[in-house]
Design brief:
Elements lengths: L1 H18 L21 H4 L2 E8 L6 E9 L2 E9 L7 E7 L2 E9 L7 E6 L3 H5 L3 E6 L8 E7 L4
Length: 154
């Protein structure tokens, strides 16, 4: 368990360091070069990475990785400085102004890590107007501790 936590924190730290090369901008790269048979970015495993920034003095930062999986999207969240299981969601809006009701629930983050297959194509999520919001704990949902805007804000 400790080794798994260390690996996840190390991976999140490396991801954040790499994301720092082009902060606040999504990195997009197909999993493999396009071929004559490739029809859409989803077929190629299009991937985008966004930064999560700390809120309310939490010190929690991280990344949100979106990877196309057909007509769905795998959403992976890696948090640094996360110490308890934390609820997180994709909301309509931006970190500055979220719609209170979550649009897409994400798997509870344990050991600073969450992965969920969301029933939405990646184009919908990166089209702007969505943000990933992390709550302090299952017992303190009202306190937001990290947030990251997806795509371009509308």
């Amino acid at each position: 368990m400790l080794v798994r936590s260390y690996i996840r924190v190390a991976a999140a730290t490396m991801t954040l360091a790499l994301a720092g090369i082009a902060p606040a901008f999504a990195q997009s790269a197909p999993a493999s070069p396009p071929s004559a048979g490739a029809r859409t970015p989803e077929v190629m495993g299009e991937t985008h990475v966004y930064a999560l920034t700390a809120q309310n003095g939490s010190g929690e930062i991280g990344t949100v990785t979106l990877r196309a999986t057909g007509d769905k999207t795998r959403v992976t969240v890696a948090l640094v400085n996360s110490t308890v299981p934390q609820p997180l969601h994709i909301h309509e809006g931006t970190c500055a102004k979220l719609t209170p009701a979550p649009k897409y629930p994400l798997t509870l983050a344990a050991d600073g890590y969450s992965t969920t297959l969301v029933d939405a194509p990646i184009a919908t999520l990166i089209g702007g107007g969505f943000a990933v919001n992390v709550h302090e704990s299952t017992t303190n949902i009202a306190k937001y501790v990290a947030c990251g805007n997806l795509g371009t804000a509308k």
